[in-house]
Amino acid sequence: MRSLEDKKILLVISGGIAAYKALELIRLIKKAGGTVRCILTKGGTEFVTPLSVTTLSEEPVYTDLWSLKDETEIGHIRLSREADLIVVAPASADFLAKIAQGLADDLASTTLLASNKPVLIAPAMNPEMWESPATQANLKTLIARGVLQAGPERGDTACGETGRGRMSEAETIFDEILSFFYDRPLKDLTALVTAGPTYEPIDPVRFIGNRSSGKQGYAIAAALHETGAAVTLISGPTALPDIPGVKMIRCETAHDMLKACEYAIPCDLAICAAAVSDWRPAEDTQPHKIKKKPGAPPPTLTLQENPDILKTLSTHVHRPALVIGFAAETENLLDNAKEKLSRKGCDWILANNIAPDANSGENIFGGDENHVYLVSENKTQDWGRTSKKAVARKLASEIAVYFNNREQ
Nearest to residue 328, comparing CAs of 350, 357, 360, 313? Predict the structure, then answer.
């Protein structure tokens, strides 16, 4: 376990049955050598006692904005300034709303409003409350301000319902605290990631597209965010949800995606994981659905080439320091990847074989695994068949090494 010695955590415990997990979180922080001070909201005292909190933290527990001793020392200012990180666990729907709107009617919300330190929230609430447009709007507001997030998880909740809203376990939140202090090697970098397919309309109903699910690109965006990068994810049409903390730009066509990419640069690195349609109809989109007429031949569709997003970024006047492309191939995987690396002018190619599995017939598109090779000018690495999330984490690690070597 990495040490939290000399690290000061301010833990805000708001109301909710998950408040009991905060006691274990205190124990883990103390075991790692950290100092943890606690603010217990009025709702929080309904679930855990100040005595149990102060016993575990070995520090006074703060509850009242109008405590004479605390406020003669301007307690809410002092608490907010002396911490290295403020953790809100559990973060109830009510408390999220308070801090999103900048309310300051108790010690906890006043301290958060007065703070100039990083904040990590661990939401906990009923699944319907979590999915509520109001809660999601408050969350987006907080994420846009740079607030970090741990969970919530999907599972059974105290109210007897099942869904997303269950507070992450103390060990998971503790890992996020460690990651904040130690495991964010890309924290000074900006990243652009493209993901998913593009749809090129033929008429209001039909389009030219492909089977890309976007899972690999989304996993890469999440991994880069977890390692500290400021990430913009430009996504074609997918069924995947937004990634908390990642700036999302949704688009449909190759032209839209290129425009969004050019808007997102300059940046430090660009990863083109999207399966961009190579062609689009040469004629303007038909304003109405093309009707099939009995006895008439099918319409002729003339195609023209779409813009090359990867090559555009590789040769742009504001070219990112590291440009990475994907080569999805059904044959001659490495030869095609090396040729693409040269032709596009990018730095790395992640080559993945999308031919159906010879035994199962399973298609990589839409699946949760990839067999990837990292191809650069000087070497080729076989990463084997693994989950798309593992590919994303491995890529984030390679990127961290690359930028660390550039700085030396």
Answer: 350
pLDDT in tens, 179-202: 788 767 887 899 999 999 999 999
pTM of the predicted model as reported, rounded to 2 decimal places? 0.61
Pairing of strands 153-156, 230-235: unpaired
* Residues 1-26 as b or e (16 or more Cβ within 10 Å = b): eeebeebbbbbbbbbbebbebbbebb
CATH fold for domain 190-407: Rossmann fold (3.40.50)
Query: Which fold, 8-181?
Result: Rossmann fold (3.40.50)
For residue 297, is the peptide bond before it cis, meaning its omega torsion is within 30 degrees of 0?
no
Residue 201 Cα distances to 129, 212, 310, angstroms: 38, 17, 22
159 flagged as catalytic = yes
Domain limits of the chain?
A: 8-181, 190-407
Q: Rounded mean pLDDT of 228-235?
A: 92
- Residue 1: the pLDDT is 46
Catalytic residue among 159, 267, 272, 346: 159
**φ/ψ of residue 26, rounded to 5:** -60, -45
